[in-house]
Amino acid sequence: MRGRTILLTVANLLIPVAILVFATGFFPYKPFIPGLAEYEEIGNYAYKFGKAPDAPFNKLVFMVVDALRSDFVFGEHSGFRFTQSLIRSGTAIPFTAHATSPTITMPRVKAITTGSIPSFLDVILNFAESDTTSTLATQDTWLAQLKAMEGGKLVMYGDDTWLKLFPDFFERADGTSSFFVSDFTEVDDNVTRHVPEELLNSDWNAMIMHYLGLDHIGHKAGPNSPNMLPKQIEMDGIVQQIYEAIENEEHLSRTLFVLAGDHGMNDGGNHGGSAPGETSPALVFMSPKLKQITEGTDGYRCPTTPKADFDYYTKIEQSDIAPTLAGLLGFPVPRNNLGVFIPEFLHFWADGSDRIQLLLRNAKQILTIVKATFPAHNFKDKVQEMNCEGSLSSGEELSCKWQNVVQALETAAALHPKMRMDIIYSFCRTAQDIMSSTTSNYNVSRLILGTALAFLSFTLTMLSIRSKLSSISSTGIFYTLILLLYGILMFASSYVEEEQHFWYWSASAWFAYLFIAESRKEWFSKWVFHPAVMLLIVTRTLRRWNQTGQKHAGAPDIAHSTFLLHPLVLWSLVGAVYLDITIRLSRHIARSVMDPKKSREEKGYAELESGEGDRFVGMLAVFPLGATAFVFKLGFTAKDAPELVKGVNGGLFYWVGDLGLVGVARMVFVGLALSASWLVISEWRRTKMVKKGKESGGDLAVALFDLLSLFLITQTRAQNIPVYLLFRMQIFFLTLLNLTPTQITITTLLLTQTSFFALGNSNAISSIDLSNSYNGISGYNISAVGLLVFMSNWAGPVYWAIVGVLLLSGHPSSTPLYRDRYFDEQEIKEEVKDWVKEEREHLNEMLEKEVQRGREKGKKGDWEEHVALLTLWMGAGLGAVMCACTVLRTHLFIWTVFSPKFLFAMAWGVAYHLGVSVGLGGGIWWVGGW
Amino acid sequence: MSSTTTITKAPKTRPPAAPINILDNDTAKLYTHIHPILVLSLYAFQFKSIVADPVPALLRTLIPLSVLQIAYVAICLPPTGSNATPVAPPKPGQKKKPVPGKLESGIQGKIIPAFLSLLLSTLAATPVLTITLILFGAPIATHHAHTLLCAAHISLLATLPLIYVHGVEGEKWREIVALLLPIDEVYGAMIGAVLGAWLGAVPIPLDWDREWQKWPVTIVTGAYTGFAVGKLVGGTLLKGKKISFE
Ligand SMILES: [Zn+2]
């Protein structure tokens, strides 16, 4: 017994270790060069340079419009009429700036300002670290360079991401945060109101604006929302205002105006992944001075059609913005930049040697990073013999390209400047490709070690349950088969994208299996209403609740149906969920306030059922909590999705408005914490009074679960809350089935996964729901936000993990309140109603048996086996994902499909499995044994 | 216990279920092996048109499939009620009973039950299977004809011979659903077709962009393949074995 426990503990501890080792190999730490860049001696070549070229601009207006996809500016149906006229007239140069995944704002701002290419690791670091490493305060950016210039002053208006990344950078700033995506106007008005006065101020040399409204419209209603065009016209008006000021104000005459999107959006209006729509933001450089470099060319047609999806005009990398700004405004290229100066702008310098100098400075800066990445290779600054034939490694290829640069510069002969520039460009672009693909940067031995550790965890778990393995059962065969299939499917990119199908498919088969298994023991005459068949029906309904994955992302589903979203329907269902939980909680409180000693004296035995008076007290105590939680949901939805609360009495929001949503959410959380402490303390006192073994702990476990579900509902979007009624039905039908502990574990496993996808999640970063991540938080508290993000996205799995524990210990049905509660609840489902009446007696009979069984259940061995089977799955699943990421590391989809999957697997492995399934579940199991 | 019936009662009233043996004549023994080949060839022949336009093609294919299945049960299988399953194995050297050779008794005893089975499997089993398919994830708002025809094919493959040999007695069908009967080629074919249809769903989400990945081609393909495999394995390797859940 002890040996088993040790093996299982080690297997569980190996999971985070394996994840950590693998992550450090998969997202390698990139060499980072500290300090601000300065103009350095360019080097002594046969080709001679003059002094550093003069910059055509001295001021910068950088206007970011969040999620400004290329077609919003350049397309036929764009609202950017004025901007388009500038492009046609040659005073604006358009680009599509390729944004690499993850296409979310913070890493994109990092790419734009530093010129580096932030990896997925930055996403985690941004979340996990609040200290200076995640800010850009100490990094070399064009903001730092502009600030360091003589008289450099920066101002910033808009998305407060910039203020977080650049603390104490700005002379004047006004940040806006995107708490509510339903806010289309206020976030932008807060920026626009500062524009006129700032255009009159002459003290700044860079003004940054970041508009969020367009992104919010996308999230809310997609790119074709009726609000989209008016918003574009509004943004175009601001462009016009700024451009005309540049034309007319003397102090702005040498101002470069950049309009950029940080990322795009997909057809659903979301972003984060790497669909063409998400990675193709627009980029426009504007200034009357640009006329001088576009004059000789053909100019640009606008509006126009894209070459490929969203691919308008020249496609550049988003990181190219930083070195281009450096050249145009006259400061050294930021140190960690991997971008390449945009060739169109070289025409500002008539002299070929100036152009070459500009590029060479860019190349030498990139070379420092290349040297740090490939320390073993030869990047000497002199002409030498090199073997550049045949297939070359990344390092060799770069070292050859650099040698070409050196040779081109050491040739004094009358080489056309264009040729020398092409050679330098070739080096820079290759370096950019190689350094950003990171294929060369994988630490393969760590990848293999991490994968091996995951499989070691799997093996140790196998050893811990080896006695169980010797007997072959159909349940075991089912578990093994789906485990094998799951492992194989993790290698198929489409199955990673559409993972929900695997789980729904397995879950339906599992319930069919349970139906057959039950039918073998006892034939249920009304087999159409067999609990397993009902489970199939409920699962099918859940499957339809949210369409997830890539292929059918926008397909019709229940959560977006006009029927559910009718406020009356939606809030009746949501209200039913809240009412149900409130009544449950009131009974728990009633139990906790009654005095077992008194009842023992009066009746001669300890009454476990509470009386009328106690129930009243319980309701009185719990009602405020339930009501506050419900009002919070109403108030939150009114802000987040106003269309869902149309027709709800405005007076209800009156006091919400006074207290603020943050205050109300805090009241709910504090109420939950107080109730939990009260229940635990009173239960603890009871266990001292009443003799042990009276299954009193079971009630506490159920009470804590009900409190937890109230918390989870608070973290769930309104249109998903009715799902909890379906969950309740699933629990009910499960308690009617005579499940063995192993079957309970498999059911838990399948339902945790299906509930995750049914609530609208998938393996895409863009599907992460951030709307409930700031409930009750006013500042920026990373660990609290992280916890809330996890809880709101993993609400289903957390719910089912605990239900699994309760089922395993036989508690849910053993609490008396369950028995009389269920049938009221069933009335909601009309079609079940008649059947309920008919079968009521029979079900009660079965419930009696279930209660009996429940008393026999709850042995320690069951818990260990439960954890073992879940750990086994986690170890194998993680191992498969890691193995897929290792084997397919050069696959086209590695950054778009497999690495997001690994990020999700990390959350499943550490936060869900260790934190919730084993940690929280273990706590509930322990409490249940009091 | 008014609403439940325990199947443990069953053996008291009936002899323990024995596997179905095919009729003891050369035609039956030969045709039972040819039949799956014919069924698969029929499907292979129709495959292209099913992929191109599932609804009319699946509908068309139902007719030859019914003909084949009726021929199969009539030629190879003992109809329900007939005591073709020997109570005691024939002793070596014992003279076999002559097979009823008259054409009339053939029609009376075989063709009519075969057509009845066809009728029942179409009218009773197809709706149940359609609902089952939807519960397992078939499109709920669209593709109704597709799903219905898919169910009809599975039903003809899986349930027609079962109805022919076991009839419609409720008790028997409970045993069939609960997988309590011993395996034989008919039962094996049913289990194979159902499992095959279930496994047929696996390739649908893959991004191969093939025409045949569309609903319900893979399901029907799985059912046909499963039918043939199940029939073969059930009639040979696993014949007479009982499925154990322990
Ligand atoms: Zn966004």
TrEMBL record, chain A:
Annotated ranges, domain GPI ethanolamine phosphate transferase 2 C-terminal = 440-929
Q: Which pathway does UniProt place it in?
A: Glycolipid biosynthesis; glycosylphosphatidylinositol-anchor biosynthesis
| Keywords, sorted A to Z | Endoplasmic reticulum, Glycoprotein, GPI-anchor biosynthesis, Membrane, Transferase, Transmembrane, Transmembrane helix
Q: Which domain of life is it from?
A: Eukaryota
Query: Which GO molecular function annotation, any one, does this entry have?
Result: CP2 mannose-ethanolamine phosphotransferase activity
Q: Name one GO cellular component term.
A: endoplasmic reticulum membrane
Pfam families recorded: Phosphodiest, PIGO_PIGG
SUPFAM superfamilies named in the record: Alkaline phosphatase-like (SSF53649)
What does this chain do? Ethanolamine phosphate transferase involved in glycosylphosphatidylinositol-anchor biosynthesis. Transfers ethanolamine phosphate to the GPI second mannose.
The protein, known as: GPI ethanolamine phosphate transferase 2
Q: Which organism is it from?
A: Zopfia rhizophila CBS 207.26
TrEMBL record, chain B:
Q: Give the UniProt subcellular location, in the record's own words.
A: Endoplasmic reticulum membrane
Q: What GO terms in the biological process aspect are recorded for it?
A: GPI anchor biosynthetic process
InterPro entries in UniProt? GPI_biosynthesis_protein_Pig-F
Where does it primarily localize?
endoplasmic reticulum
Highest taxon, organism lineage: Eukaryota
Q: According to its UniProt record, in which pathway does this protein act? A: Glycolipid biosynthesis; glycosylphosphatidylinositol-anchor biosynthesis
Q: Which GO terms describe its cellular component?
A: endoplasmic reticulum membrane
TM segments?
Answer: 111-136, 148-166, 186-206
Q: What is this protein called?
A: GPI-anchor biosynthesis protein-like protein
Q: What is the species of this protein? A: Zopfia rhizophila CBS 207.26
